[in-house]
Design brief:
about 475 residues, mainly alpha, Growth Hormone, Chain: A, about 0% strand
């Protein structure tokens, strides 16, 4: 017979029965949300480090701006393979916990593969390692974004996902700072710079493998299709349409593709921009400027969380995306510190766009939530498409600042979803019905007066016979 601790951590779950996990209160959802939020920091760090290495490989390997975008192409090109393929299959057949562990394992393997590629200065090999890491992070995003959205009261889903994604922003701040000291400070000593990069990826591998073990032993509530069907029925009177008729989801997927492509292109060529626009001629300083811009990005997310407490998330989304368009225009025409300041502001307003599209796009999907999340996360592959276009444009025009017109065009296309979700009733009414839902909410009087009925003990008794063994 299997030991008790092994039985307790069985990973197989079923989507046919409810676990009541979609009815968790704020207090009950704190631990699983904190654990999953660590994942957001991880891929923020990985993404920020990638932006730093983009410029580093241009310097050390003598490759063009267009070719260096192969890093972003490998990283984000892996996302649809994960979110629409292996990770989504695991999510639908085994659940969130297995997908988290799978993603962390792939991440760790990719980080280990990066070691020999860096030793032999193989750009192609390193792109392959990044592709494996991208599959791992794509798996994590396929599970983590919808989990954060649905784990807890639906009313606060946009706030939850933006708060968790704010720690993604912190990771993107730390990575360029570490890169500026560990990589760019060794000018003329490429061997030392690459050696430091190797140690960074080895540390990442060790950390994510340990985190996979922590996830295995942690009691993470599983949220099934049946839970999501119940939540959709309770929050909205609208009938859930067949998946092929989920036009709002497909529009959100298109917006995510355009927006993510623009965001990745700007960050990936930020150091090129500041060195060519005259803000600095030193790549190490440019890397620190990138850390500052990513700091604005993280700050924008915290500010967005506060605003969403008082203003409907769809309105905050509309204004933030509009400001991205407004401020990237002078970034194309201006130079020096003025142009760089415009990009700082653009990154501030980029902050809430990705997670808010995820939250709004999943509204009303019900039993299709897991499948739908794969489409929205898969749209991150825009990050593999737009940066090469920007890089090729910058090479052709011999100017990265002028090439910023490329992400501007993709921002404008993404803005079509912001308009629809605010002014088209079929979009707006579904979004608002979830923002007003009472699921998972308890007043303080109820908690005090009925502590045994609806408090922690009551919930525990209610779900004892229904919970899925993890």
């Amino acid at each position: 017979m299997a030991p008790k601790w092994l039985k307790k951590n069985q990973l197989k779950s079923t989507n046919a029965s409810r676990t009541n996990a979609a009815e968790l209160t704020l207090r009950q959802s704190i631990y699983p949300l904190m654990l999953v939020t660590i994942l957001f920091f991880l891929w923020g760090f990985s993404y920020g480090l990638l932006d730093t290495l983009n410029k580093h490989f241009q310097n050390t390997l003598g490759i063009t701006r267009a070719r260096s975008s192969g890093l972003q192409a490998a990283y984000f090109g892996a996302y649809p393979l994960a979110s629409l393929g292996h990770a989504n299959w695991l999510l639908r057949h085994y659940g969130y916990k297995v997908t988290f562990i799978w993603g962390l394992t792939l991440y760790g393997v990719g980080a280990l593969v990066a070691w020999p590629c860096l030793v032999h200065r193989s750009f192609g090999g390193f792109c392959a390692a990044i592709f494996i890491i991208g599959n791992g992070l794509g798996s994590l995003e396929t599970a983590a974004n919808p989990y954060i959205t649905v784990c807890g009261p639906p009313r606060y889903s946009e706030i939850r996902i933006n708060l968790s994604q704010a720690f993604n922003g912190i990771g993107t701040v730390l990575a360029p700072v570490i890169g500026s000291y560990a990589i760019f400070n060794h000018v003329g000593d490429d061997a030392k710079a690459l050696q430091n990069t190797q140690w960074i990826y080895l540390a990442i591998a060790c950390f994510v493998f340990v985190l996979a073990v922590v996830f295995y032993f942690s009691p993470i509530p599983e949220i099934t299709d049946a839970d999501m069907e119940f939540q959709a029925a309770e929050a909205s009177s609208a009938v859930v349409q067949p998946f092929r008729k989920q036009y709002k989801l497909f529009h959100a997927t298109f917006a995510q593709f355009c927006y993510t492509g623009a965001q990745v292109a700007i960050a990936g060529y930020f150091i090129n921009y500041v060195t060519e626009a005259g803000a600095t001629s030193d790549s190490a300083v440019g890397s620190r400027y990138l850390a500052g811009a990513q700091g604005c990005f993280a700050l924008g997310r915290f500010a967005g969380v506060v605003l969403m407490k008082f203003i409907r998330p769809r309105w905050v989304f509309l204004v933030y995306l509009a400001m991205c368009i407004v401020f990237i225009i002078p970034a194309v025409t201006e130079r020096g510190n003025t142009g760089m300041a415009m990009l700082f502001i653009v990154l501030f307003f980029e902050s809430i766009i990705f997670p808010t599209i995820v939250a709004l796009g999943m509204r009303g999907l019900g039993k299709y939530s897991k499948r739908g999340s794969g489409f929205i996360v898969g749209a991150v592959c825009g990050g593999a498409v737009v940066p090469p276009i920007l890089g090729a444009s910058a090479d052709a025009m011999k100017s990265t600042p002028k090439a910023m017109v490329v992400p501007m065009c993709f921002f404008i296309m993404a803005f079509s979803y912001a308009i629809c979700v605010n002014f088209v009733p079929a979009y707006r009414d579904v979004a608002d019905s979830f923002s007003e839902a009472k699921i998972g909410l308890q007043t303080s009087d109820e908690e005090v007066g009925n502590s045994h009925a609806v408090g922690d003990k009551g919930v525990s008794e209610q779900t004892e016979t229904k919970e899925v063994k993890l």
